[in-house]
Amino acid sequence: MTPISKISRRVLAMSLVGVCAGWAQAQSQAPIRIFVGAPAGGTTDTMARTLAQVLGPQLGRTVVVENRPGAGGNLAADAVAKAAPDGNTLLMSFTSHAINASLYPSLPFDPVKDFTPLTMVSTSPSMLVAHPKVPANNVKELIALAKSKPGQLNFAIGALGSSLHMAGDAFKMQSGVFIVNIPYRGTAPAVQDVLAGQVDLMFAAVGNVQSHIKAGKLRPLGVTSAKRLPAYPDVPSIGEVLPGYESSAWFGLFGPGRMSPELTKRLADAARAAVLSPEVKRRIENEGATPVGNSPEEFARFVDSEIVRWRAVVKYAGAKPE
To answer: What is the separation of C-alpha 316 from the centre of its chain, rounded to a whole number of angstroms?
Structure first.
């Protein structure tokens, strides 16, 4: 075999450098994709698009949002879990990421090991509302009413396995009442039936019911946050009656598992800066949510605790995926 000359080796080395540089440039020019496991127009989608507009300039990259709804967010999560850990594919997930760990008997991914938590974007409490015909003005009166009429009151459930479904079951578990769940395919039809008086009660995102509360068509009984909401100072937190009760939806940004510490830090720092920017904070607060922007370590510990917490509620409820 003819030995490679020094000149040939030099040419080959320069060629390899050129190929690697070209690949790196292509990678840096490729858009970062944020997968969302919910339809366009929903809260998770809104959070992702709000973040993407500021995250892109932070990273000097184009950031696009792709909706892959289905299976309670699992389709989008599975795609990210199987993506290369190069930072080009991210996931905007929500409370169901933790709930699904026990709701689904088997998942094609590990909700902890196959993801790299970057930051929690926001939290969003919900509100327990009742049709005005329900003879209860607050949580204490509702519990007394439900205990006097077991199985005669009902909850509208926008989606089985959702954070709002679990908020209702956590309420029943802690209060010891029996209230029947009425499942719907979506929040909108569930709200409409409560407005019509066909269903008695519902846990709903504040933004979905605030206009009906102002119009007197729904009665607010309590909020799921640890403290009262500034916009509703006269509506007590459920925890004032059921100590320790708290159930807020959350939205967070993940990368695939196995991302390097350097890449994780770069993406997390940019995401946190975006979340805490005046523009994004304002948009998040307009959605009735609270911006967070915590560290990857803090977010990871939170996700672990959520998986444990919701496991107990799923077991109590006997909930099954749709």
So the answer is: 22
Q: Where are the beta strands (DSSP E) in 219-286?
A: 219-223, 248-256
Measured in degrees and rounded to the nearest 5, phi and psi for residue 25 equal: -65, -40
Confidence band (pLDDT; 50, 70, 90) for 17? Answer: very low
Beta bridge partners of 64: 33
Say how far apart CA 191 and CA 206 lie, in whole Å: 12
Q: What is the pTM of this model?
A: 0.78
Query: What stretch of H or E contains 317?
Result: helix 296-317
Residue 201 above 80 pLDDT? yes
User: What CATH code is assigned to 125-240?
Assistant: 3.40.190.10
Question: DSSP state, 152?
Answer: T
C-alpha–C-alpha distance, residues 255 and 37, integer Å: 14
Taken as a whole, the chain contains a residue count of 322
Residues 267-278: tens digit of each pLDDT: 999 999 999 999
In this structure, the strands spanning 115-130 and 201-205 are antiparallel
Task: State both tokens at 227.
Answer: 């403290």
User: Alpha-carbon distance 157 to 286, whole Å?
Assistant: 24
**Per-residue confidence at 111, pLDDT binned at 50, 70, 90?**
very high
Local confidence band at 101 (pLDDT 50, 70, 90 cut-offs): very high
> Which superfamily does CATH assign the domain made up of 28-124+249-317 to?
Bordetella uptake gene, domain 1 (3.40.190.150)
Q: How confident is the model at residue 174 (pLDDT cuts 50, 70, 90)?
A: very high
d(CA 1, CA 124): 69
pLDDT, position 2: 45
Residue ranges, comma separated, of all CATH 3.40.190.10 domains in the chain are: 125-240
Q: What is the DSSP string of 68-95?
A: ---GGGHHHHHHHHTS-SSSSEEEEEET
Beta bridge partners of 128: 203, 222
Q: Say if CB 43 and CB 205 are below 8 A apart.
A: yes
Closest CA to 225 of 200, 250, 195: 250
**Where in the sequence of the chain do the CATH 3.40.190.150 domains occur?**
28-124+249-317
